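[Discussion] Sanity-checking designs against the backbone

I'm trying to build intuition for which residues belong where. Below is a structure token string of 99 positions. I'd appreciate it if someone posts a full sequence so I can compare it with mine line by line.
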């Protein structure tokens, strides 16, 4: 069996049903925003993907440190916009998103 890359695993999890109504995160998401934080004492930025619904509500967050935004844009349906923030957040703001 072929091993999945982290981005492929991320896409697989998006296609998995999140409730008993057979609705997946992929169906409900309209925007994915990738946020960054540089932890104190760390040497690598942490990233999270924040999933927004049609009306701007936060649906979910997932760890996305090793995620490729370019591959994600190519693999997702065109109706889903992927935004990568170029600014780093403070730890308090970053932790607000959970995940």
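Best answer:
Here's mine. Compare freely.
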């Amino acid at each position: 069996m072929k091993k999945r890359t982290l981005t492929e695993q991320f896409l697989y999890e998006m296609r998995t049903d999140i409730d008993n109504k057979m609705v997946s995160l992929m169906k409900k998401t309209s925007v994915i925003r990738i946020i960054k934080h540089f932890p104190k004492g760390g040497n690598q930025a942490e990233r999270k993907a924040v999933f927004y619904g049609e009306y701007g509500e936060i649906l979910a967050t997932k760890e996305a440190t090793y995620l490729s935004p370019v591959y994600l844009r190519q693999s997702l349906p065109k109706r889903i916009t992927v935004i990568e923030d170029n600014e780093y957040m403070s730890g308090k703001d970053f932790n607000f998103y959970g995940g």
